[in-house]
């Protein structure tokens, strides 16, 4: 969540900065709610102060034999009003808390202003798109002809938007996971294996709840609701909930491979075939905790770490800076990496790398001290896919397909496949 002091001090300026960020319908209610809450709190504190004085006064009056009925009546009225104020403050707090959890982060000054992806800015292109002596096939045709992905049986087992990897398909997926994790290990990331089920509070801390409730899978037990993670970022940015780190511990780098689960609500009709948009998919995630002054430099490094995977695999890609209206809720700045898919004749997102500044750390209360005597400050949190494994898998199928239907294995992956250089053929 963003700093309430910013909203309180200059609401019109913050509203203008957030103008293209899909604001909640009740955003304009913040100033009045905040003002009412502070006025009620002042009245409550005044009442409590007066009650503290009435107690000794009543005691002295009783000791002197004086009539205390008026004082007792005043105490009764104060107690009744105190209860009313506490109830009203509680109601406003609930409204404010919900509102603050769905207000998006303030975009960085370098983010292009725009309502949607049309305003995204191309930053760079890398690599050479492959040329073919034949019409390249989409990855689902390549995979099915090789027998390495089974969509039909997956549909029988689980329904639409699921896939079964078989034989060399399963081995290639595992090789990609191992390659990515080892690559990021050499760049200083600590590997984490987190739980796949987390509590609602953990989802709130990462920014998934309450806004993205319809995108999540959760358990049916009302006594103990747990959510399947849509990304390991959820767990990684909650590793230091309510902790104060020492400045010498920063920056912290984490990487994690997990299956990820997304309901894909509202995505009907988009990428319905193949591996691009599944309910369950594998992803290697990158998360950083940094000091505020280094976080945007660390975003550049994190994005380069994700890009280096694509470059090692020889996959052409481009980097886009997302516009203010196209970024996720928590992001202050996001780079999307889009890989070239010749079978689809299009670029598709394969990684989003974001600096969420102090948006997530305010939710998780993750702070640091510059010196032992300094006041704690909120860390900055960053995240990025390093990479989406299934999308990397399909990019290899489309970019390395051969006329006979086989697929060449990129050289960097061969050690993870016992030297195998061809799938099929």
Order of helices and strands: HHHHEHEHEHEEHEHEEEHEEEHEEEHEE
The stretches of 5 or more residues where confidence is low (pLDDT under 50) are none
CATH architecture of the largest domain: 2-Layer Sandwich
Supply Rg.
27 Å
Number of helices: 12
Q: What is the averaged pLDDT score?
A: 96
Number of β-strand runs: 17
| Domains (count) | 2
Strand order of the largest sheet: 1-10-11-12-15-9-8-4
Global morphology: elongated
Determine the CATH topology of the largest domain: BirA Bifunctional Protein, domain 2
Tell me the CATH superfamily of the largest domain. Bira Bifunctional Protein, Domain 2
Helix content: 25-40%
The CA-CA distance between the termini, in Å, is 53 Å
Query: What is the C-level CATH assignment of the largest domain?
Result: Alpha Beta
Report the sheet-strand fraction.
15-25%
Instruction: Characterize the biggest β-sheet.
Output: 8 strands, mixed
- Determine the structural class based on helices, strands and strand pairing: alpha+beta
